[in-house]
Amino acid sequence: MDFSSTVASQLNAGVILPEGLVIITLMVVLVGDIILGRNASRQLSYVAIAGLLGSVVALYFQWDNSQTIGFLGGFNGDNLSIVFRGTIVLSTAFTILMSIRYIQQSGTALAEFVSILLTATLGAMFLCGANDLVMIFLSLETLSISSYLLTGYTKRDPRSNEAALKYLLIGAASSAIFLYGVSLLYGLSGGEIRLDAIAAQLTDLSSGQSLGVAIALVFAIAGIAFKISAVPFHQWTPDVYEGSPTPVVAFLSVGSKAAGFALAIRLLVTVFGQVTPEWQFIFTALAVLSMILGNVVALAQTSMKRMLAYSSIAQAGFVMIGLVAGSDDGYASMVFYLFIYLFMNLGAFTCVILFSLRTGTDQIAEYSGLYQKDPLLTLALSICLLSLGGIPPLAGFFGKIYLFWVGWQAGLYGLVLLGLVTSVVSIYYYIRVVKMMVVKEPHEMSDTVKNYPPIRWNLPGMRPLQVGLVLSLVATTLAGILSNPLFNLANSSISNSSVFQTASTPVILSESIINRQSLSE
């Protein structure tokens, strides 16, 4: 009895109850598809959404849980992981809503798509709470491989096949680089795999260890930067976004990015706390490059999906300001911005899906005069794009203000000023789309809009799209006006997380090497 109770307490399997509900949902969808066939795929999609909402409820009841460590230290279900896991689960639920009509119209199996998407969600959720190297890598690969499959899911489309191949090749290289970096950590720590144990072993850096930690840091950041689409590790993003099924792009832009930032916070703060100035310098460079290239190149795009791809790169640059700040407020600003980014970005992609389903194109020029034919779609897309640009009083404005305020408090004046300038640039290409939809005279409509089909929400799979559109529109609007509860949520997720309570004191790596070398001489 004592042995079993000890094992149960060490496993603490209840900490992954939200993931367990997603696993059960995945099994129900798989088995239901085999038994009921393709005719029941739409009902199975609703079952998947119900399971994901159940996972959100389980996450809510785990808030401020005193027993957060599970599986012998391999998983940490603290408040930080709860917020990120909740963001990922909600992004998946929205993605399924916008996928039903899109996937069925493409002629591919919906239930299989939902199953792969749930598998990617599992990988992302475990990655947010992973507390040892083995679980980090397994979760990362689960997310990555599922993402490759989703990218090439519409196999009859040559663009989707090309996107999947590019994503696979570049993703495999980044995984190998990341694995080499964490294997160096394993060796330098004397065979430890838990993040806190590795950090304890690396507190006293000798000259040889300092070089090894520096290499491990660079390789680990390369893997993380690929996942969050930071320049210069962004090469896959525009082509994959343009060629992939649009619901997949929506998930990658929010769920995968949130998991990448969750991994970055946990790994950098816990393991690389000794070399904080070094990784802050690297992420400063990544933020500068991402904000400049993402916003400038987006100006020249003619496709909505490619424009949103470069916008996603630029948004990652803004979020990195909070990471570089390195304070509790900085991490809280990241959590807050990623949560509201979920609604405004998925709302924009929902509008792109609706327009492409009705017209068969995603070219920006074809949106000309859309207000005359589809006021709801025009309103929703305008609100989401203006929020992404940071126009008050929408949610994106408060998110950027929080990030810039945190950066200014941390003394990152140049980075904040660059963020302000590039935000102004981003407003131009967002408003260009809004102006094209709203301001154009009837005789200046594009041929696509002139032949716009009648709006029929009663078609199979259109109601979920309508629900997703309205929810994202309401959330994007109200999250800005009623942002105080979200501020409190973000701050609470950081202040009550064990990661930041045990973070070690930063030491400048280069000075450590120089001092030890001078002593040895």
TrEMBL record:
Domain NAD(P)H-quinone oxidoreductase subunit 2 N-terminal: 13-100
Reactions the enzyme catalyzes: a plastoquinone + NADPH + (n+1) H(+)(in) = a plastoquinol + NADP(+) + n H(+)(out); a plastoquinone + NADH + (n+1) H(+)(in) = a plastoquinol + NAD(+) + n H(+)(out)
One Pfam match: Ndh2_N
Domain of life: Bacteria
Keywords: Membrane, NAD, NADP, Plastoquinone, Quinone, Thylakoid, Translocase, Transmembrane, Transmembrane helix, Transport
InterPro entries the UniProt entry points to: NADH-Q_OxRdtase_suN/2, ND/Mrp_TM, Ndh2_N
Keyword Repeat appears in the UniProt entry: no
Subcellular location: Cellular thylakoid membrane; Endomembrane system; Membrane
EC number(s) on file: 7.1.1.-
Membrane-crossing residue ranges in chain numbering: 20-37, 44-63, 83-103, 110-127, 133-153, 165-188, 208-228, 248-269, 281-300, 307-325, 331-355, 376-398, 410-431, 465-487
Enzyme class, first EC level, given as a word: translocase
Domain NADH:quinone oxidoreductase/Mrp antiporter transmembrane: 130-425
Bilayer topology annotation: Multi-pass membrane protein
Family affiliation: Belongs to the complex I subunit 2 family.
Subunit structure: NDH-1 can be composed of about 15 different subunits; different subcomplexes with different compositions have been identified which probably have different functions.
Function: NDH-1 shuttles electrons from an unknown electron donor, via FMN and iron-sulfur (Fe-S) centers, to quinones in the respiratory and/or the photosynthetic chain. The immediate electron acceptor for the enzyme in this species is believed to be plastoquinone. Couples the redox reaction to proton translocation, and thus conserves the redox energy in a proton gradient. Cyanobacterial NDH-1 also plays a role in inorganic carbon-concentration. NDH-1 shuttles electrons from NAD(P)H, via FMN and iron-sulfur (Fe-S) centers, to quinones in the respiratory chain. The immediate electron acceptor for the enzyme in this species is believed to be plastoquinone. Couples the redox reaction to proton translocation (for every two electrons transferred, four hydrogen ions are translocated across the cytoplasmic membrane), and thus conserves the redox energy in a proton gradient.
Protein name listed in UniProt: NAD(P)H-quinone oxidoreductase subunit 2
Organism: Spirulina subsalsa FACHB-351
Taxon lineage: Bacteria, Bacillati, Cyanobacteriota, Cyanophyceae, Spirulinales
